[in-house]
Design goal:
Layout lengths: L1 E4 L4 H12 L4 E5 L6 H5 L3 E4 L5 H8 L4 E4 L10 H19 L3 E7 L11 H12 L4 E7 L1 E2 L14 E4 L9 E2 L1 H14 L4 E7 L6 H12 L4 E4 L5 H7 L4 H15 L11 E4 L4 H8 L3
Parallel strand pairs: 1-2, 1-4, 2-3, 4-5, 5-6, 6-10, 7-9, 8-11, 10-12
Helix pairs in contact: 1-6, 3-4, 4-5, 7-10, 8-9
The structure holds NADP nicotinamide-adenine-dinucleotide phosphate (NAP).
NADP nicotinamide-adenine-dinucleotide phosphate binds next to α1, β5 and β7.
């Protein structure tokens, strides 16, 4: 039996779908039972727990061989790092209390660093806290989600793809489908001690590459337009997220520019997924 957090989100849904398709026993963990109905209909057990509730999570984790864990974004929080820390500490307490053998954590490129990485700081803390539980830990450090480009497609009609990454800078990007599949495989494989998977798509892309793919799919010229770091906070807050969350993203984009949000290498296992940017962008554009 595998417990899966975040099943109503991008990656958790793929983990659950992959495992159920393989005939594995799955327990989805949701905060609203009604949202788990499609999974119950497919044969999954359902546990109801808020991620900050260690007791409910302990019940959800009892009897499982492995758990897929993530730290959900807190866009409107006044203090996202403190709220993330409360979730991580509750999840770690539950992993310890339920004696879960193996945790697969959705982490991020750059999570080897304690600071200078914005929201990724919480994933550094999560890796440390979960490794200290005594469970085997597989940290799946994912590159930049290809789905993030969905937020930049609004200006394609004007021939522009805004980005906070330098247009000629190639960075690891990955589809959430690849993340879910790799995490599901890691759960079934089981874990020993602490291991890191550094996960990117079939190749790295520059924003210029992404703009060229979008142009081809849209059938019209599109160019990447580099927005300055000082525009991160006003842009993010204009979309309705809180100033603290936006400030963390400014730090992350500065960390990308400085080369700090990068792979650690060393003993980490480098894995490439199979889903190309073209496939994700085609879906995002509705083509
Ligand atoms: N975007 C990137 O480029 C990138 C790169 C690397 C790593 N990451 C990391 O990826 C993670 C996000 O993964 P994702 O995109 O799969 O997640 P997501 O789609 O944002 O989904 C979040 C999930 O968490 C659940 N959730 C939120 N708050 C909860 C609570 N209090 N109790 C129980 N469940 C709760 C949500 O359920 P509801 O439906 O109930 O809200 C949802 O299922 C973050 O840690 C992020 O840092 C992102």
């Amino acid at each position: 039996m595998y417990a899966i957090l975040g099943v109503t989100g991008n990656t958790g849904a793929v983990v659950a779908d992959t495992l159920l398709t393989q005939g594995q026993a799955v327990r989805v963990v949701v905060r609203d039972a009604a949202r788990a109905e499609p999974w119950r209909a497919r044969g999954a057990e359902v546990a109801v727990a808020d991620l900050a509730d260690a007791d409910a999570l302990t019940r959800a984790f009892t009897g499982v061989a492995g758990a897929y864990v993530l730290v959900p974004p807190r866009p409107t929080s006044a203090d996202p790092l403190a709220d993330n820390r409360a979730v991580v500490d509750a999840v770690a307490a539950a992993v310890r209390a339920a004696k879960v053998d193996h945790v697969v954590l959705l982490s991020s490129i750059g999570a080897q660093h304690a600071d200078g990485t914005g929201p990724i700081r919480s994933l550094h803390h999560a890796e440390q806290a979960l490794a200290a539980t005594g469970a085997a830990l597989t940290a799946v450090r994912a590159g930049y989600f290809l789905e993030n480009w969905g937020g930049s497609l609004g200006m394609v009609g004007q021939g522009v793809l805004p980005t906070f990454v330098a247009p000629d800078r190639a960075i690891p990007m990955v589809a959430t489908t690849d993340i879910g599949r790799v995490a599901a495989a890691a759960l079934v494989e089981g874990g020993h001690g602490r291991s890191v998977i550094e996960l990117a798509g079939p190749r790295d892309y520059t924003p210029d590459d992404i703009a060229a793919i979008v142009a081809r799919l849209a059938g019209a010229p599109v160019r990447a337009q580099h927005a300055p770091l000082d525009a991160v906070v006003p842009t993010f807050t204009s979309f309705g997220v809180g100033a603290a969350f936006a400030g963390l993203f400014r730090e992350m984009y500065a960390g990308i520019a400085a080369g700090r949000v990068a792979w650690e290498g060393g003993a980490a296992r480098a894995v490439r997924g199979t889903v190309a940017a073209d496939d994700v962008l085609r879906r995002l554009l509705g083509r």
